[in-house]
Amino acid sequence: MISQPMTNEAVVVLTPNGIRFPQTGGPKPTSQRRYSLVKQLKAEVKVLGAIQILCGVMVLILGIIFVSAPNSPSFTPVFSIPLKAAYPFVGGLCFVISGTLSVIMEKKSTKPLVWSSVAANILSSLCALVGFILLSVTLAALDPAFRKCTFNQKNRELEETTFHYYVHPLIDKECFTAKSTLTGTLSVMLIYTVLELCLAVLTAAVWWKQAHSDFLGVSVLASLPESC
Fold it and tell me: Membrane spanning segments where (predicted)?
């Protein structure tokens, strides 16, 4: 039996019964599996990016509500904590940017975009962590502020005894409304912040791993046809 190598690494075997061509379809399952993984990765990236954008938009909207919410002077030092850090606006903007990059890479993936997404998600993680701390501190300070508000209003009642029966219900309602509005807004903002923190850490880890991996799970996106 005589074997003769051919081009493209094909092997033709000459036997007494004729020429036999060995099967060369072995790598196909690997290519199909890689193609399937890439399609799945593209879908997951798009979903994660959409959720990140949603979190960013909600934090921005809640920040606007937070600024315009009715409040008592007793609550001003409390809700100024996250506002001085501009978290609702800076954090929300970072979340939207990182999510937008992930959605863009669902259609077009290049190495600069991958590293940009890693950086954006790391920045979003830091913003979300700072926001979590600020919001937790602010929520914890609402009860003391409410007690201070009630105490200050009762002192006003003693000074305005003539309007005692009229001022007291209005004052209680003012303090309670301010606390309820701030508690609800901060709680929902905290939920979206925690969600964004988890998503940003997960997405940053995925892109970091793919950027340093020999497997073309991300970079192969650029070489696939648009019909993928």
Answer: 47-66, 86-106, 118-142, 189-208
Q: Which residues are CB-neighbours of 139 under 8 A, at least 6 positions away?
A: 183, 186, 187, 190
Please, what is the angle between helix 164-211 and helix 111-140, to 10°? 150
What backbone torsions phi and psi does residue 145 show, to the nearest 5 degrees?
A: -65, -35
Q: Please state the rounded mean pLDDT for residues 23-47.
A: 66
Distance CA 217, CA 220 (A): 6
Q: Global pTM?
A: 0.70
What six digits make up the tokens of 101?
Answer: 């990059």
- Confidence bin at 228 (pLDDT 50/70/90): very low
Q: d(Cα 217, Cα 38) in Å, to the nearest integer?
A: 6
